[in-house]
Write a structure and sequence with these properties.
4 copies of one chain form a homotetramer. The first copy, chain A, has a 5-stranded parallel sheet with strand order 3-2-1-4-5, with helices on both faces. Chain A contains 13 helices and 14 strands. The first copy, chain A, has helices at residues 18-31, 50-57, 69-82, 99-113, 128-139, 148-151, 157-166, 244-257, 282-298, 301-320, 326-338, 369-372, 383-406, and strands at residues 9-13, 34-41, 63-67, 117-119, 144-146, 182-185, 190-193, 223-230, 233-237, 240-241, 262-268, 274-280, 344-351, 354-361. Helix content of chain A is 42%, strand content 19%. At the A-B interface, helix 5, strand 11, strand 12, helix 9 and helix 10 of A face helix 5, strand 11, strand 12, helix 9 and helix 10 of B. Chains A, B, C, D: Keywords: Ligase. Chains A, B, C, D: This is Argininosuccinate synthase.
């Protein structure tokens, strides 16, 4: 048993980068624990295979490298988009929704490999530590969680680099200093925060953006696309059926090319402070608009309003890290129930940052031209009914007014 | 007493246009009632003075013509924007919010002039009849409300035109046929609906738009503006203090010129059917984004989330016509309480339909660089606290997981 | 076709009593329609078979007489009790929940018998007309609904009696005058309203109560019972498994004998006015308390709080008549999701109007003595965690306080 | 500076009992800090003056002993009762609501006396530590909070007693062993928890109850009382105007004598576990019922339903300790807005644990006999209106049904 507590084997969320390599080594030296690495392709861009060699070089025997993009979109992103989830009115939750998947795999791998702990590279000030650890505890109540950033004694970037060099971890030149901002990415979005972004009065420098061109750079001609939905999920793009991750990748391309999905936001973290983030969610932004559009003709008013009323709570739960929690699952049951007839097609115009709905149709449409027309509706709607409707809705207001008059 | 019931004097919301002129005459002939006209400048565009002569020509003695733009923005639009109100996730409620003001003045004028009824020109299928009448009853429980479109026997445009000509009401050539769509406008927005817009799969024709140029037509260069807030309301634009309506007019100009604020929507009416509307809310769209931005640094997280959780209900109330209802006033009290420190400046970039926040600052900012920085924070935040925070938040999840393991 | 509109065959909710017999005859004479009767045993007390002979005497050929008590409790009452539904904080919705079942059977019978209309005996001022008709329309959009009380010209009790006698409908002496109050009853409750109950300052006279003895009359010795739950529903009483209606009947007996379940309430009707009702829900009151008690040890905190937050809306939906509406079904999906582990036993003491929980236990209990004990908990809970938990929960409050100090 | 950190002067919430005396001494010896004591009469029963001598004996120079009962009821209890607040459906929040007042005074006294810290005697597993500390931080962001129970090394009751005896703190014989349960009390309630109450299947032993007789012991004759309200608060009892605390004390007497207000509950703590508490809230239980009754005739339906919809959240905030938080203040603003016309009288029958409403009346009543009567209402309500009301409410359901039929 090391001075830090008894850990035999720990599964580490390992990107292959410098920071998680340092963590890997630190777990070995400080905990004396055997380390299992898990590296996931969530669509963050870049190869994940190089992580294998790096892990091997540090003596890791159990190395898990997996492409989880389809699972990510199908089981996490799509269910969330059924809810039209927006945190604080605008944020599409790109980072939040990836954490439960990673943590779930850590726990599963811990079970497979007989590990008694998991470790992650999230810092002690952010939301990600919470999301990782709540998921871990929700799936295994006895798991030990190691959060090196909260535990170690390193006080500066220099300390970290020194440790790396002392342990023969390769430090490329651009990693020596601190990055001007930190990045998280997956198939749903890229986020950037910190350092050059810390003053919310200062516009983000252009080099922060990684995944989209700016509206100004986007083409002068609109692109038109059509998305088909079934049970609330997109299933085809421009007439072509696609798997979830394939479809999402294609949406991302459309979004990137048309300058869509940038967001500069000051948000409220679960741990209590405000932070400023810059997000790029090209495909997600398109999907969000399209999903609302297909719902607009297929979802009943009260179903829609009920969904809207608990959407902020649902988004908050995901942002805070409570994906694997009964309250999220209860809300999901309600949302999924509402999506049974959310199907049909939405046509969109993409143009320099704009996502413009230009049409929606559905075999399950609740839109009735007969009901709404100014022309003769052949009895579908009796305007006389409106008088009674209004008078009974007004009854309580008239009673209040009568009281007020009494003084 | 006429065959329709006993009405002595009726105050009519009179635009001066053909339809309300027909209504005016119809009230005279069918009810035998004395008619008082009320014509308001809500910023719909066009002169309102011509309504005077038209009314006089039809024998009206009590004619009220008023510029209510400042009241409209100050007492109706601004309070609503404090709530970030969006109906069904996207609609800025431009028509809904104007109705209570008009109906309120109708009731006030009825009192002044000793009238026992009010009348409006809204149809029997729409929301506006409800909004007018709920307000009327809420302010005077004994008022009689006449809704000619629900009552008269006219069955077609031709019937109306015949009636007009029979009564020497001038019918200009373009008013003979039915309009290709109907329009409502005020300082907050223009809405268009009906006829050419009835198929939600068909893109609105360009001539529907009245108040904005398209993103494509907008300048290739962004415009930067700065809005200053106090207690949640905008008080200055680009460093210049302005009255509410003046400021809003200036925002509308910025929005129009940059192709901002168009919305093509299928929405759910209070009377039960879906309808398709095209909205243009140039200044309102800018203000909505700016208000969320200033809140993002000045509003506490839980205050913001509480507001968000009630926003859909608040927006629904306004859409349905319950402005003068205790539940709206209760929510307003809550919202206004939250806005006490919502002050500071927001810088925005307007570009071809985009409203992009590029900065926010405030003397009341809750954003703390010290708390959030990756650098040394001199003890503002102890990362060790996060461990306890997470572990207690996880306690119930671990208990659940332990139960699940028992089977 | 009669003067009232074209109706060929109408299914009537027929109690066999005087009022619905008059309606039956009126449908025959005024609409010239063939009438099908539906008489249900919902546990209201009294025989339903006599309705057959009465209907036959009026020439009815298609007579449906059914015992629906098990369906009522299993498919309507139990799902509602899973939600702990209380309208306006106190009312257990005994009348509201029965209407959708009756209306559903009317529509089913209309389909079976080829009827094009349904009719009910609810008045034009109450909630029941809404509940009947919303259900009817929700299950058959083209059905015609006849509500005689809103349509006919009878202006007084005398008119009704005259009509009855003219048509050889037997009028017993006690039915000649108006009843001192009106009653609705089923296995869940009895309600009384009207006339002698109309002044809310006057205590209901003792003869209003039908189904319970008063607390004063109840035995001086408590009765102890034990209810066992599975998936949120009671399945056994005092160790004996029972069908839903059997169990409920037994609970009603316990409640009645111990003076349990009386409620004197001024409530808000959906149609806009306040009314005063006296309710007796003996078994339901016991079940409500017991269900909360079993949830208290088996339901997670956030699941419970989420349920509670939607409960008023859920109760409102049922009270208003929206049982067969997507928003109710969505909420039900959420509620049912929460009940998967709500099982175990609750022990109660019944005493003179009181329902006192004296114990609850469950194989799925989330109550952990180790976590909560003042004694040594062997590491289940680290009190040090609380410090971090509190400090991060306080962070935003401290930031607010710091701002306030700045003035 | 002591080994525990630098604290110069600390204000201690001091009851005068053994435990807080030990804490007092421990603060002196371990922190080397000057201690200021604050002892409040919240209506817990027993004298508070003896605390003075005890404090003096331990060398305390600044001793604050205050009767805060009126402030407690007026500024904390009454505002909470305006909301009909119940935690988890049943708990009247008696302990929760007292903590913010005590903590507020600690902070105020710290300011007066120049203290840099406050200390309390709540344990590390409960809610009270959170409530104390959130309030403290909300009112002074820089205050140091000392929670001895979380910090010290004592591992058992014996350790505590040893420390006491070592420091000449008098230990009466009955305090040597551990109490069979722990108690908190104030004018609103008594709570008991721990030890003999830890098994939720076992009924609480009779000696746990301190403030009420049992329903069985209560008189065989009912007691009738009348409470008068103004702006949602009780102002008179049985025709006699009283100050808040006086009135509450009288209500407590009535409740105690009639066996009213006992509650045996398993609840969910904010720190994550379930716990079992036994509560006695005699006067509060009466007031809760009476307040709902006066609201039932004076509060508009939608105002009432809106209140009900956020009540669980409001109660949760108080239970968790967020009294001095903007979200609670926002909700309070909404609640208080609703109470403007909540006035009138409620008559209640108290009988062996039952609180039975027997009448309510108000000059501001919204109950209209004309609207509701089965008799002729002289046109107050047109039953024909109900048809239109229902048909428009059904329109969306019919549209859904038509879709369903299409399959």
């Amino acid at each position: 048993m090391s001075k830090r507590g008894s850990v035999k084997k720990v599964v580490l969320a390992y990107s292959g980068g410098l920071d998680t390599s340092i963590i890997l080594k630190w777990l070995q030296t400080e905990y004396g624990a055997e380390v299992v690495t898990f590296t996931a392709d969530l669509g963050q861009g870049g190869e994940i295979e190089p992580a294998r060699e790096k892990a091997q070089r540090m003596g890791i025997k159990e190395i898990f490298i997996e492409d989880v993009r389809e699972e990510f979109i199908r089981d996490f992103v799509f269910p969330m988009f059924r809810a039209n989830a927006l945190y604080e009115g605008v944020y599409l939750l790109g980072t939040s929704i990836a954490r439960p998947l990673i943590a779930k795999r850590l726990i599963e791998i811990a079970k497979e490999t007989g590990a008694d702990a998991v470790a992650h590279g999230a810092t002690g000030k952010g939301n990600d530590q919470v999301r990782f650890e709540l998921t871990a505890y929700a799936l295994n109540p006895d798991i030990k969680v190691i959060a090196p950033w909260r535990e170690w004694e390193f006080k500066s970037r220099t300390d970290l680099i020194d440790f790396a060099e002392k342990h023969q971890i390769q430090v490329t030149k651009d990693k020596r200093g601190e990055a001007p901002f930190s990045v998280d990415a997956n198939l749903l979005h890229s986020s950037s925060e910190g350092k050059v972004l810390e003053d919310p009065w200062v516009e983000p420098p252009p080099y922060v953006y990684q995944r989209t061109i700016s509206p100004e750079e986007a083409p002068d001609k609109p692109t038109e696309i059509e998305i088909e939905f079934k049970k609330g999920d997109p299933i085809a793009l421009n007439g072509k059926a696609m798997s979830p991750a394939t479809l999402f990748t294609a949406l991302n391309d459309f979004g990137r090319d048309n300058g869509i999905g940038r967001l500069d936001l000051v948000e409220n973290r679960f741990v209590g402070m405000k932070s400023r983030g810059v997000y790029e969610t090209p495909g997600g932004t398109i999907l969000h608009v399209a999903h609302r559009a297909i719902e607009s003709i297929t979802l009943d008013r009260e179903a829609a309003h009920l969904k809207d009323s608990f959407m902020p709570r649902y988004a908050e739960l995901i942002y805070y890290g409570f994906w694997f929690a009964p309250e999220r699952e209860m809300l999901q049951a309600m949302i999924d129930k509402s999506q049974e007839n959310v199907e049909g097609a939405v046509r969109l115009k993409l143009y320099k940052g704009n996502v413009i709905v230009t049409g929606r149709k559905s075999p399950k449409s609740l839109y009735s031209n007969e009901l709404v027309t100014f022309e003769d509706d052949r009895g579908a709607y009796d305007q006389k009914d409106a008088a009674g409707f209004i008078r009974l809705n007004a009854l309580r207001l008239r009673t209040l007014a009568a009281r007020k008059r009494l003084g």
